[in-house]
Amino acid sequence: MLTGDGAYIKKINRQYILKVIYEEVKISRANLAKVTGLNKATVSVQVNDLINDELICETREEHNVVGRRPILLSINESAAFFLGIDLDYDYILFNITNLKGDTVKYEKIELNTDIYEEIADLVANRIKHYEQEYSWAKFGLAQTYIAVHGTVSTDEVIHFIPTYQWRDKDLKDDLIQKGINYLHVENNANLAAYAERVFHYHTSDNLILLNLSSGIGSGIIINGELHRGFHGHAGEMGHMIIYPKGRPCRCGNEGCWERYASEPAFFDYANRLLDHRIYTEQDVTKLIEVNNDEIITALNKWIADISIGINNIINLYNPEMIVLNSPILGSYKNSLNEINKHLTSSVSHYRDIVISGLGAKSAVVGACAMGIQNFLELPDLSLNATNNSVSA
Amino acid sequence: MLTGDGAYIKKINRQYILKVIYEEVKISRANLAKVTGLNKATVSVQVNDLINDELICETREEHNVVGRRPILLSINESAAFFLGIDLDYDYILFNITNLKGDTVKYEKIELNTDIYEEIADLVANRIKHYEQEYSWAKFGLAQTYIAVHGTVSTDEVIHFIPTYQWRDKDLKDDLIQKGINYLHVENNANLAAYAERVFHYHTSDNLILLNLSSGIGSGIIINGELHRGFHGHAGEMGHMIIYPKGRPCRCGNEGCWERYASEPAFFDYANRLLDHRIYTEQDVTKLIEVNNDEIITALNKWIADISIGINNIINLYNPEMIVLNSPILGSYKNSLNEINKHLTSSVSHYRDIVISGLGAKSAVVGACAMGIQNFLELPDLSLNATNNSVSA
DNA sequence: AATTATTTTGTTTATAAAACAAATAAAAAA
DNA sequence: TTTTTTATTTGTTTTATAAACAAAATAATT
């Protein structure tokens, strides 16, 4: 537990003021005092500190109401930059935002190796490149978060990545050895869940994100905070048993949800019905567009199994929002209707189920946002960046 | 969000000092300063405030080391009393503790009505009786928490109690109308989970309690706080589907865990195997004592289904502790072994599964502890009371 | 058009509250 | 008497607050 002294007061009031500046985008000192409830003098002193630290800046703007014209304050967006890296199987995404959370760079690198050392080298060089590129800024490249598609322990060591078959890799420490600083490693679904809250569902303190791809990943926000669990392995929802003695799973059990609700499971359903084999999300989209009967049947059967898991999640967590991130579900207009049709239990309570608007970028923009929150030591963060959507 | 000022600092330091006094039971001012890191002068001032408020008291004790003899400080246990009420179906438990969390009174009243108004009257009169009885204490009966075996909404309105078939009953407000104050209504499993943390697993920030009785109730502690969910209905684990198209459930779905892992489900298993019908927990205990083959078979089959749900819970929550509260499991020595045998998945992570040491008293002692925490406005609480065990 | 009044913003000054640091007093064993 | 430990006192620093003040803009009046 923490003891309180003068410095601690000043810190929490500074955090509060920064939070309000983020939310209001542009706000005067007088208004800051009104919104926060702090004294005008207190706000003035804090604001001057923030200006000296170059974290916020003043702008004079047109003003047509009576009284002295206010000096508007806003985040100094070019003070610091933040890198998010999504370490997927056959490609790596790099995304950089400014201090406001606006994306200023987005790059995708195809991978043709799965050797840990090679990938670590590649990532290290790339980070160093960006560090150079933004070295002109007051705080340069201030924080980097790496999203990995597997379990990460509480000490940020990679526990297991199924697609790479990497176990117990201390990527953070290995990169630190290569001279990289201000670095964090986090599960991709956790970052995606965080992104949904920071960029879209600001007020949702109980939010669950489900990633349906080669496996099932989930990020859980409870009481406004990420729920990582005791070892950091919470949210392994794919290994919830929904068909006892069902299909064998790599985890050693039988009937895991992942074997029914992941994308490979869907392709199995579909290819059993169709007269020609399909392999990609584009193949599915095309068939949906022409209203192919077999693909609709396969989709609905898949969704029935997805819904069993969602029913269980709702009963355990009573979430406010459930955000689904799946290209296939996203391209099938009827998917949310179908899911809701299955959630008829009288004890299931949730507010809304939606499809993610961030899509493939969710982990990297969440990574950047977490960098901002960590850099400014804020207890929470709401961003209104507009250029992080699926299509961007 | 909260602004910081002097009063806020003073409050958090006061909370910290109280917390340390609870943990250390008896401690001098000098030691308090060392443990908290606060200045000796600060501790002296705070301690004098607490003595003036009659929340702590000084004692002089034997002391054989060199130097001035310290004045030991401890909680003034008779300053305030706390009532916990467990509103079960055919009986009501009343438990009163002092400010240290030691039980000073425990009463059980058999019920022969299920009419809401009658029960509310009975409870109100009983609370008034205890208020009188402890009116001599500085703060009298300071807080009352009522545990109900059903869902409670975030506004403390009873949403649904299956055994009583009560829906949307505002028991809290109805009792306030009858002149009762400082009153809270909470789900019984939440209070039981809280009790496990406060009285036993002080350091466990990720703890799940499972109550297996007529239904399945659960209390979830995540990041050190109770997880109630958006509406307050989190932890309806009994309605997780584990056998799609299985046994019909009152919730409208089929194959809910409750239909396989609750005590009625066990009695069904057992009575299908045995040559005579059994009805009570005592019947089961007797058969276990004589090593009856059929009862062991039934137990193990029941435990297999319990384990499926526990596997799912572990994968979703990655808890540190799982505490099981079930008289039948408690009386079957082999139960934890059997459960662990089923948890073989390579991705399931937990630290320990145990049987509750609080048993039937868990909800009422948790209720009293929550009263203490609420009364002193502490962020968390560890108690070392010794007279709250199952047998007491 | 010039002047005065009003309103709002932001700063200055004095005060109060809290923690802290250092010196001092108290008490007990060596 | 000396040493050691505990607890209090005195004075300082930091921070927020309240109230007065200064600055800057519009509105109203002459």
From TrEMBL, chains A, B:
Keyword entries, A-Z: Carbohydrate metabolism, Kinase, Transferase, Xylose metabolism
Molecular functions (GO terms): kinase activity
BP-aspect Gene Ontology terms: D-xylose metabolic process
Domain of life where this protein originates: Bacteria
Annotated SUPFAM superfamilies: Actin-like ATPase domain, Winged helix' DNA-binding domain
Family note: Belongs to the ROK (NagC/XylR) family.
Functional description taken from the UniProt entry: Transcriptional repressor of xylose-utilizing enzymes.
Name this protein carries in UniProt: Sugar kinase of the NBD/HSP70 family, may contain an N-terminal HTH domain
